[in-house]
Write a structure and sequence with these properties.
The structure holds 2 protein chains of 2 kinds.
Chain A lengths: L1 H20 L2 H29 L1 H36 L3 H5 L5 H31 L9 H27 L6 H4 L5 H4 L13 H5 L2 H15 L4 H32 L1 H4 L3
Helix pairs in contact in A: 1-5, 2-3, 2-5, 3-5, 3-6, 3-10, 6-10, 6-11, 10-11
Chain B lengths: L1 E12 L2 E12 L3 E6 L5 H8 L7 E6 L2 E2 L4 H5 L2 E4 L11 H11 L5 H11 L15 H13 L5 E5 L7 H18 L2 E5 L3 H7 L2 E6 L2 E6 L1 H8 L4 H9 L4 H4 L1
Parallel strand pairs in B: 3-8, 3-9, 6-7, 7-8
Antiparallel strand pairs in B: 1-2, 1-4, 4-5, 9-10
Helix pairs in contact in B: 3-4
The chains are: A mainly alpha, B alpha/beta.
């Protein structure tokens, strides 16, 4: 059972990977925004550091870590959603869905592509941060793995929600693939602690795994400690949100099969 | 043994009844034509057979598998081709076929692709992007994709639509040969009556979601007192049906 599934998952990933292998503009596009964002915030952070001294250096470190880690979420989310949209744009969904590819295998392939896209997109920015601003994200230590995994997982469940909306509303909902995560930035406490937010909004922030990851990031940078409580919350929330998003996807997938939307989704 | 059995198959979209409780079966190794005008329910029927569309009522069994409960087992043993569903245009022919070889869990994919390329005259096209092919070449690639897993059941939706007569004839000859060599069961939706007459041993005539007549092409011609299937099709489409048939 595992081998045929693995082959089908690889088949769909291969379909996307050959697109990148043969197209340098596509590869460039993956790294373009993370790199550009890093340039802007990197110079801003350097400016703060030069004006405020040691405190500014700590703050600029938090800023750069926030920028780079948030890109992990954003690129993971877009990796899933855009790979799915590629199937719609190429009018290929009909063939994919009449193959023996199970829905969970489709999701696994999209998540696999999101990891590839995120790595190609974010790694150059991480290296540039080190080269240009002497900022080493890996200095966060092994806890960086926990941060990255949780932020990727958040990107995946958000994109599952987006894919579900596309299944319900068709290609008209595709703009959400680019925009939906930006609406969560204010509540994700990327650049400031949750305590800065108005009390009424804090529960929203604390319901997001990203807010816990960024609280953990600040604890690591400021005090050199691992905020295990926040990590536990982030992991638990991700599991809950992923479960809910998977149920939503299956409901919408079945709904699309009932409405005939799989035949007309690109129109 | 029947390869396809549809019982009471119904699809309703709100108040619109797209397919109205149709029953039919296709014996293993048979080629059956699914005919009807635009909006007759052919594509909806094929979509339900493929599991793309959940029926409102009724059941489908393909190769013994209940499509409501076990559709992936059936899908692994069948395939589909339609000029209206594209293959990724930027991928080469070989890359496209490799993708589907993986999706259908085909062992020795390279060997199978080379074999199909030889049979369908695609060898020189393997490294060309699918988007740069002519309509006839795309049809041959779509057929190669549809045969990649050596399907026991093949659903073809207007396989020769938009092809010139020469290429259309080539495809029909090829399908005839393939069917006799492989014993594959084929359900063919088409508007080309000459094609249906040539390839199909049995015909299902659909109109407004119902099967309004069925039989071998010869039986239909006799029943309607016509010389060719096109005239039978027009009789049915224009409601000159029953007095001719009865």
């Amino acid at each position: 059972m595992i081998r045929p599934s693995a082959r089908r998952i690889w088949g769909l990933m291969y379909r996307h990977l050959v697109l990148y292998r043969g197209s340098w503009p596509r590869l460039l596009e993956l790294a373009y925004w993370p790199t550009l964002t890093l340039f802007i915030w990197g110079f801003t952070a350097s400016f703060f550091a030069s004006r405020v001294g040691n405190t500014g250096a700590v703050l600029s470190g938090m800023l750069l870590a926030g920028v780079l880690l948030w890109e992990i979420t954003l690129r993971s989310q877009m990796g899933v959603a855009i790979s799915f949209l590629e199937e719609i744009w190429s009018r290929n969904l009909g063939h994919v869905f009449v193959s023996p590819l199970r829905p969970w295998e489709l999701l696994a392939a999209l998540i696999g592509m999101s990891v590839v896209r995120m790595t190609i997109g974010v790694l150059p920015a991480v290296l540039l941060a080190w080269a240009l601003y002497a900022y080493n994200l890996f200095a966060l230590g092994p806890v960086l793995i926990l941060f990255a995994l949780n932020l990727m997982a958040m990107g995946w469940w958000v994109s599952l929600g987006v894919v579900s909306l596309i299944l319900r509303h068709g290609a008209g909902a595709e703009a959400l693939a680019w925009s939906v995560l930006f609406a969560l930035i204010p509540f994700s406490a990327v650049y400031y602690p949750v305590s800065v937010l108005p009390a009424a909004v804090r529960p929203v922030a604390l319901a997001l795994p990203s807010a816990h990851v960024f609280e953990g990031m600040r604890a690591a940078l400021e005090h050199g400690t691992i905020a295990w409580g926040h990590m536990a919350w982030a992991t638990g929330l991700n599991a809950a949100w992923l479960g809910a998003a998977a149920v939503l996807f299956m409901v919408e997938f079945r709904g699309a099969r009932e409405r005939g939307a799989l035949l007309t989704i690109g129109e | 043994m029947d390869a396809i059995i549809a019982s009471g198959l119904t699809k309703r979209y709100g108040k619109t009844l797209a397919v109205d409780a149709i029953d039919f079966s296709v014996a293993a190794g048979q080629t059956v034509g699914l005919l009807g005008g635009n909006g007759a329910g052919k594509t909806t029927t094929i979509a339900m057979l493929l599991g793309l569309l959940i029926p409102t009522a009724g059941s489908i069994r393909i190769l013994g598998h209940d499509m409501a409960r076990d559709r992936f087992a059936a899908l692994a043993r069948m395939n589909f081709s339609s000029p209206y569903v594209a293959l990724p245009q930027r991928l080469t022919v070989a890359e496209n076929l490799r993708v589907y070889a993986h999706l259908y869990d085909v062992r020795h994919a390279g060997r199978r692709i080379a074999e199909l390329a030889g049979q369908l005259d695609l060898t020189d096209l393997l490294n060309r992007p699918a988007g740069q092919l002519s309509a006839g070449q795309k049809t041959r690639v779509a057929l190669a994709k549809a045969l990649i897993n050596r399907p026991e059941v093949l659903l073809l939706d207007e396989p020769t639509a938009s092809l010139d007569p020469d290429t259309g004839d080539w495809v029909r000859s090829w399908l005839e040969r393939y069917r006799s060599e492989s014993g594959c069961t084929i359900l063919l939706a088409s508007h080309n009556m000459a094609e249906v007459d040539r390839l199909c041993s049995h015909v299902l005539m659909m109109k407004r979601g119902r099967i309004v007549d069925r039989g071998s092409p010869a039986e239909l011609l006799t029943r309607y007192g016509r010389d060719d299937l096109e005239q039978v099709f027009l009789d049915i489409a224009r409601d000159r049906v029953r007095e001719a048939a009865l």
